[in-house]
Amino acid sequence: MKNVTDSFVSLGHWPSAGSFGFNTDILATNPINLSVVLGVLIYFGKGVLTDLLDNRKQRILSTIRNSEELRRSAIEQLEKARDRLRKVETEADEYRVNGYSEIEREKANLINATSDSLERLENYKNETLRFEQQRAINQVRQQVFQQALEGALGTLNTCLNSELHFRTISANIGILGTMEEITN
């Protein structure tokens, strides 16, 4: 624990005059900070992230299955419509003399309506998939950020002790006193 406290104390220079300085050696401080943050993220976030991704995967697969069922239903409707079309075509041959143009119009309307219905179902499936994917990504990002923040705060709270708090407060009071003397 002494080494951890010393690493925090070494971030600043503590001369007897009460001034405060920073360790500006980027090569010494940034890799350590990055490795600590990455280590905490990997250690605390790996299991939760895996569970979240598995849950999202199951939901997305369920949505895909539902969409496929809707697609199958639409295909069945299309087959029924095609059967009806065949029936209409048969009747059209019988009634060709009396109403050929009317039957052709009904045929076109039936095909267009079925085609439109299939297109709407396909668009709905695609929109649902995109929405679920984006929502899953946003949810995972938010939870990873929250867990990283909680982990960092927990680590920070366990590393700080009352002696370090007292020294930090005393140094800040000294700095404020020096600043007050300078402004007067």
TrEMBL record:
<dbReference type="GO" id="GO:0009535">
    <property type="term" value="C:chloroplast thylakoid membrane"/>
</dbReference>
<keyword id="KW-1133">Transmembrane helix</keyword>
<keyword id="KW-0813">Transport</keyword>
<keyword id="KW-0406">Ion transport</keyword>
<comment type="function">
    <text>F(1)F(0) ATP synthase produces ATP from ADP in the presence of a proton or sodium gradient. F-type ATPases consist of two structural domains, F(1) containing the extramembraneous catalytic core and F(0) containing the membrane proton channel, linked together by a central stalk and a peripheral stalk. During catalysis, ATP synthesis in the catalytic domain of F(1) is coupled via a rotary mechanism of the central stalk subunits to proton translocation.</text>
</comment>
<keyword id="KW-0472">Membrane</keyword>
<keyword id="KW-0138">CF(0)</keyword>
<keyword id="KW-0793">Thylakoid</keyword>
<comment type="subunit">
    <text>F-type ATPases have 2 components, F(1) - the catalytic core - and F(0) - the membrane proton channel. F(1) has five subunits: alpha(3), beta(3), gamma(1), delta(1), epsilon(1). F(0) has four main subunits: a(1), b(1), b'(1) and c(10-14). The alpha and beta chains form an alternating ring which encloses part of the gamma chain. F(1) is attached to F(0) by a central stalk formed by the gamma and epsilon chains, while a peripheral stalk is formed by the delta, b and b' chains.</text>
</comment>
<protein>
    <recommendedName>
        <fullName>ATP synthase subunit b, chloroplastic</fullName>
    </recommendedName>
</protein>
<comment type="similarity">
    <text>Belongs to the ATPase B chain family.</text>
</comment>
<feature type="transmembrane region" description="Helical">
    <location>
        <begin position="32"/>
        <end position="49"/>
    </location>
</feature>
<keyword id="KW-0375">Hydrogen ion transport</keyword>
<dbReference type="GO" id="GO:0045259">
    <property type="term" value="C:proton-transporting ATP synthase complex"/>
</dbReference>
<keyword id="KW-0934">Plastid</keyword>
<keyword id="KW-0066">ATP synthesis</keyword>
<comment type="function">
    <text>Component of the F(0) channel, it forms part of the peripheral stalk, linking F(1) to F(0).</text>
</comment>
<keyword id="KW-0175">Coiled coil</keyword>
<keyword id="KW-0150">Chloroplast</keyword>
<feature type="coiled-coil region">
    <location>
        <begin position="64"/>
        <end position="98"/>
    </location>
</feature>
<dbReference type="Pfam" id="PF00430">
    <property type="entry name" value="ATP-synt_B"/>
</dbReference>
<dbReference type="GO" id="GO:0046933">
    <property type="term" value="F:proton-transporting ATP synthase activity, rotational mechanism"/>
</dbReference>
<dbReference type="InterPro" id="IPR002146">
    <property type="entry name" value="ATP_synth_b/b'su_bac/chlpt"/>
</dbReference>
<keyword id="KW-0812">Transmembrane</keyword>
